[in-house]
Amino acid sequence: MANENKKPLALVTGGTRGIGAAIALKLAQDGFDLVINCLNDDELAQEISQQSIAACQSAGADVYALAWDVSDYAACEAAVEKITADRGNVDVLVNNAGITKDGLMLRMKPEQFQQVLNVNLNSAFYMSKLCAKGMTRQRSGKIINISSVAGVYGNAGQANYASSKAGLIGLTKTISKELGSRGITANAVAPGFIDTAMTQALPEKVVEAAKQGISLRRFGTVEDIAGVVAFLASPAADYITGQVLVVDGGLAM
Ligand code: NAD
């Protein structure tokens, strides 16, 4: 990467818990310094966030933990300016922050649709656009967007979420075409059912039924996703761009 005397810098949005925290830890273990984002200072102060940050530090990473709302363009702009001034260019951007607000399309309120689009999709456009400036200058960088199988296949009850995750795939492929000539890659990872707070909210019956539709008969772990993201962030994936890696244990949709 560009700065030869310093470790490459990875930024993980929503990186204090769940899949994001596992990605941050794996990248720390792989020799990255980190910017870890979450929504606000209250969440940053929570024990789970502090434990995630401490784990990355124990793995040898310099960790810059910063809370801002990634669905707010002005906040993203201020954050990227601060990060660039304090730590230099971002080498690897992982757009991981995401929310669900499920409901059947006929009953879904426009605000409910828009809010999920703002957090899951607009944020990735904002962060990619802002971080790509530095990546373009150094002529290297990797953007990894956390999509979902819901964006690949659609999912009843998730018109907002599936649209946002499908949009991320279009964004990823477009970035790969626009920025490939500058040495920047863009790829998406589409997880299936992963055991996190997001899926722990599902009723037991739904979980059991879902497992029957998975070839490996289990939900994925956060480490299953983190390993794939770390691969895409590594030099081993230098010639991969514009791809969607589905990591779902063989899910029948
Ligand atoms: P999670 O709810 O445990 O964590 C989400 C993180 O995003 C939190 O740290 C939260 O603070 C952060 N976040 C939410 N809104 C934010 C905002 N406006 N600004 C900044 N940060 C914000 O979720 P998870 O299960 O770890 O999921 C992580 C990603 O993986 C999401 O994009 C999700 O859609 C995707 N995903 C999850 C699953 C799954 O089964 N868990 C499956 C497919 C895709």
TrEMBL record:
GO molecular function: 3-oxoacyl-[acyl-carrier-protein] reductase (NADPH) activity; NAD binding
Boundaries of every Ketoreductase domain copy: 8-192
EC number: 1.1.1.100
Binding-site positions, NADP(+): 14-17, 96, 161-165, 194
Domain of life of the native organism: Bacteria
Function field: Catalyzes the NADPH-dependent reduction of beta-ketoacyl-ACP substrates to beta-hydroxyacyl-ACP products, the first reductive step in the elongation cycle of fatty acid biosynthesis.
Record protein name field: 3-oxoacyl-[acyl-carrier-protein] reductase
Name of the gene: fabG
